[in-house]
User: Fold these one by one.
Assistant:
Number 1:
Amino acid sequence: MDISDNRKINSPLTLQNRDKPHHCSQCGKGLSSSSNLGHHMKTHTGERPYQCSLCEKSFLHKYELKNHLRIHTGEKPFKCIQCDKAFSQNYELKRHTREHTGEYPYHCPQCSQGFIFKSSLISHTRTHTGEKPFVCSQCGKGFSSSSNLGHHNITHTGHKPYQCSHCDKAYLHNYELKNHLSKHTGEKPYQCNQCVKAFSTENRFKIHLRKH
């Protein structure tokens, strides 16, 4: 065996393929075991076996159901060390913490848009490539992420699981309910660290940040 062959065997790509030998036939992603591949395939089919007993929302993974139940119980175990805010999900705390710092570490190489999470960047890059590997089994519509497919599946049922406690309005998505609740409370949780302005929705906050 010559040196070039040895380099190929020990290259990062070869080692990665060796560590993740089970590949998805639909998107090419490599997984470390056949069971992990089985779980991954459900993201393409839209299958969500874990059903909430308090609403009709269902999830791909058990831990997602556990996290979701905190919405019903009101439990908020994740607390910000810089202010008094508490959150039901760890990713919400991470997102909030980066609002204090203004940190958006993941940037799209094509349009320079910044993201808090790497997964958000991966989904975003598919808007440039047009890739939609997650397909609805009921209507055939394709989506760039498994979460978008999950939200879409609810549209077939007509169910709106997020109910406002102040009025009769109900919403398909949790973020829609949060945005709506700010109208009742007047809360503006998205504070710009470069000026004194605050916003009730994340979308308006992001638009404002681009002005700076």
Number 2:
Amino acid sequence: MEIHLTPAMRREIRKERVWEAEVAPLPAVFDDMPDGRPGILMLTVGDWVLGTEVLPRPPREIPELVELLAGAIREAASEVGRMPRTIRVRDRELAVVLDGKLGTRKVRVECDPSLPSLDGALASLAERMGAAADRPLTASPPRWAGWEMEEGEIRGFFTAAARLYRADPWAARGETEPVELDSVEDGFWYASFSGEKGDFPAVSVFRELDDVVANLTLPREAVGEALVDRHFIVVFSPRDHLPHPMTLEVVGQTWPVAAPEAYPRLMTVNTPGGGVSRGDMEALTSVVEAVAAFTEAGEPAPDTFGGGDDPSIPGWAAPGARWLVRDGSHLVADLLEPPTLHDEIEGLVGELNTSPDLELGGLSPDRVHRLLYQDWESEDEPLHFKPDLPNGELQGVEILGNARRLLELCLEGDGAGATAAGNLNRVAVARMRDEGSWESLATSDQPHADHEIHRDKPLNEGDFRGLQWVRILLELAGMVERRGPLFRATALGGDLLHPTRSGELFHHLFRVQMRGMNLAFSDRYPTEETLQFGVPFTLVRLAREAREWIPPQELVPRILLPRVLEEVEGDVGSASLPGVVTHRILRPLRRFGLLEWEWDEDERRGLQLSPRRVRLTPLFDRFIHVHW
């Protein structure tokens, strides 16, 4: 990437804490098809363009985009001398994955559909490239006048947009239920919603029903190819997110705005040259007005909404609108005509979502969705964890014994000693080393650990990662807390320490380990949040694939969601994949007594961190149940 820095720029940019990043198509000069254009990776900071890279064939997949952006951000930060506090990108999914890829809590990645700094730079670039006046810019222009509309047309649109914002269709229906509108002169138009008031709410306007269905049902990366007609997006942004020229323009023209955070901006998709015609602007204004009126009217019966008699909705006739309901992942289109299309779409999407999928281990997409978003405390979910195993079935479980011993230590006298850094002090570490059970560390997790080789050597908690893991787990579970120079057990910790509540203690620690604790805290690989998010699917697949001894190299590809497998393997490489999954998922399961490992004798004596084979223990079936 080419970094555009002078010493003066470097000093100014270091004062700015928000960067904007995007991979965008270059302005339409020779070709109206965005997918056929070269792209440009651009980083901007305020009024500065920090760095650019022209991409002859820009990637479209999220992982590839993240790799490009993360590398560019790190390169730019190295030149500037510091990372920003906030990085803004336009896509929500991209923001989530990029946040994990950067791997630092000091930088927050935000989703912001309106990127004023970037849009202004792209518009300026297009102007310098000589884009013709009748071929508007791919990026939204920095002023409304850039759309080449009359002031009255823009004022009319602002009036409609203000009414829409006050009607709040986002609260009325949410982003999964679009509305269909019937124009006397122009046929059907469709509108769908995303976001909510105060968080960049947007309304997307489509010309074709097929585009609505594609937008709701296809993966994000496949939507662009599936769209068959033009598509408009109206985003409501706070005033300070507008390009400075646009702010001056809106204030100077006194166009109506519903709230300080509700300044409308327009983006186009699949339009010639990225522009908007006068006819489309007139129709878009009518659609926004109609959606506002429809929302204000509530949800009428199909034959009672009279748009044609309402002078505020020119050209729209009764029945003027219908909600198109999307229930969960099933699209139910309540269409005016033809009536058979509703059944066709519903049946097709329903079949796709309920049919077993070999790539999902024979599970259907709707079952995977239930697994990933289930309540771990509920007995009605497909993956159920028995909360009251008897104490006799938990004898010898390493994590339970060590957690109980540390709780007892924190209850003795004033508690266990703490260092200024928040770790257990050496006295507490020595007692836990001598009184705890660390067989798994001696033979698998850390066969070379100092606490096994030198029993008399003073240790810090940082040298004893197994103990550190237990202490952090108890803190996250709300059972131990640090008070000044001491660690003390909480009321919950004292209650669950009772021998009759071993099953509850085991259940609580397991839930916190798998859902509340960062499984990546003790290794140097990327965070890979999707790996932990997919744990419920992994547990269900383990119940089927690990009944008999199996090497981790064979097991790992069978127990991860396809998208998780692709992302993790892409980040760490295929050679490291089994080790990462073993470290973050299989090893904790072993500590909870749910998985057993088999080692070769030479591996026991060496520094190998992965077992030769693994399989489930009987405790797995007693604790974890799968039912649909």
Number 3:
Amino acid sequence: MNQENTMKTYMKINEISGIEGNTAVAMGTFDGFHIGHDKLVMTLLEISKNNHLKSVLYTFSNHPRDLLADVKNQTKLIISPEQKMGILKKYNPDYLLFLEFDDYQKNIEAEEFIEEILIGKLGMKHIIVGYDWRFGKKAEGDVRLLKTYESKGFFKVEVIEPIRIDGQIVSSTLIRKYLDEGRVEKANEFLGRPYELYGHVVHGKSNGKRIGFPTANLSKETNYCTVKEGVYVTLTSVCGKNYKSVTKVGRNVSFDDNECSVETHILDFKDDIYGKTISVKFLSRVRDQIKFNSLIHLSERIKKYIDFAMNYFENIYFKEQL
């Protein structure tokens, strides 16, 4: 990755200026930012370095499909825009275009986008895209169109072919499916990191505290993708430090509470963190939600969940980190 901290960020397409010299451009929605996206960005940095080009990372702060969908059908985000920007900044390209996908980009003809934006504004001499990348009005721009410009000598095209794990193409759609099914280990394999939720700690109904297992209740955006209801082994980050934890996602069925929530019991932790922003990394699924008829039975089962988590950290998680 580029070691010098010289990256310049643009948030609006009409603000792009001052890009001097020739560039290599990587384009993508980077929905969830999985291992295929990592390969694409690393290829950008390699090509720009080897060919003495400025590196430009072109992506969107929102999902392009959301411009075509009503509120109910908007794409569930695997990561927030803030998370995505944080990930992309670590690659430190020369330029990060973190643009809102708006009507202009939705309606511009593909050829016009290539000639006015990529060549005209960005001085592009090399483009790196995924095999299924589409752009321009009605998504008519694709790899084949880019290749026609390459054949005429305008720029070079590098196409990143799909990555397969166990015969399946790594994709954001499949990651969402795994999360919906509670298969966080598989989702994490595709992501290249643990699936993570961020949010503020808010006051809940103190059900956990009443039985000796206080929880941090996580606020979250409604358009986030979340895992299937159940109990999970997690790592909770507070003020930059990771703590072992057990997290319940879904309704509090033992208390006849139908409101869905994300509640985390942080092991060996007693600090007051109300109002603070924390993150919860999902590592392994323990089981489905289950209703208990007494608080004693619920308390006994939570102890078993904690034992399961401690065994996971001692015998699985830390060995995987070696």
Number 4:
Amino acid sequence: MALVVALSACAGPPPREYVLRTTATVDPSATLGAASPVVQVERVVLPDYLDTRDIVTRRDREVVTSETGRWAERLSLGATRLLAASLAAHLNGVAVTSTQPIDPPVMRVAVDVLRFDVVHDGPVVLTARWTITDGTGQKSLATAQATLQESVAGTRDDAVVAAMSLALEKLANRISAGIEPNLARRN
């Protein structure tokens, strides 16, 4: 009995759970109608070691898991949700969804994250390749790749999460710049 009490006293508090969060907001005056174009964001593809609920940092080739924080959802789900929300804020009059829409979308966005690391005592580095296709997914409209960095204000989990969120928002800005001219061509 004494051993159980001693071991429970050594255990720290449970890890905090975090979600990626966008600072972009949808214009409240923007209205979507039945004729609004729909853009579908497919689930973001991440390397397996990142697509977990663990918050990880990297030291050279070593991946270190946070003992004090974890994702409230798989990172691929959170990244997809944030990209869809951020794109919706950038693309006025466009319905952006990360689920299968009822009517076929006019475009699909596929994102393949090649690197999304928090370098120990350094910045977040996000390298992603994305493809914008027509609604059927058969015709490529644009393909691009970018490497983005975002400073981390400290070493705590909340600072890491904030920097990762900002890096994904920067990615959404780049993607929306590829969607807008293709939407204009449709009109």
